[in-house]
Amino acid sequence: MSRLRLLIDEDVWTGLAEALRQAGYDVVSVNEVGRKGLSDEEQLAFASAEGRAFLTHNIQDFAPLAEIYFQHNRSHASIVVAGQFEKGELLRRMLILLETLTPETAANTLRFI
């Protein structure tokens, strides 16, 4: 089974990418790839081009972006919106998500954890 790859937004705990990599997942943050400060549209376009799901806390901007992608028949690997959890809880929820989703089942979905 192929594994979901992930790009983490700058508003998410910076240690999450490293913690998920230590668990064996292909995860990078926008800070690590030199994309901090770019627009939400640019971040999602980059994640899509890289085949990475995008994790953010920013529901107010990314839910409408998911709708725009849907209306224009544009593909993305997935948008995952996380609540403002404590670090351990966020890590636990992301590990469950990454363990249960494949790129195929995640594609073009908006998910809340």
H/E element sequence = EHEHEHEHHE
Distance between the termini: 22 Å
Mass-distribution shape: globular
Helix content: 40-55%
Strand order of the largest sheet: 2-1-3-4-5
The number of domains is 1
Strand content: 15-25%
**Count of strand segments:** 5
Folded structure, characterized:
The model has no long low-confidence stretch (mean pLDDT 96). By secondary structure, this protein is an alpha/beta fold. It has one domain (5-112). The protein is globular and about 35 Å long. It has helices at residues 16-22, 40-50, 59-71, 87-100, 103-106, and strands at 5-8, 27-29, 52-56, 79-81, 110-112. It has five helices and five strands. 43% of the residues lie in helices and 16% in strands. Strands 2-1-3-4-5 form a five-stranded parallel beta sheet, sandwiched between helices.
Task: Annotate the secondary structure layout.
Elements: E1 5-8, H1 16-22, E2 27-29, H2 40-50, E3 52-56, H3 59-71, E4 79-81, H4 87-100, H5 103-106, E5 110-112
Parallel strand pairs: 1-2, 1-3, 3-4, 4-5
In short:
By secondary structure, the chain is of the alpha/beta class. 43% of the residues lie in helices and 16% in strands.
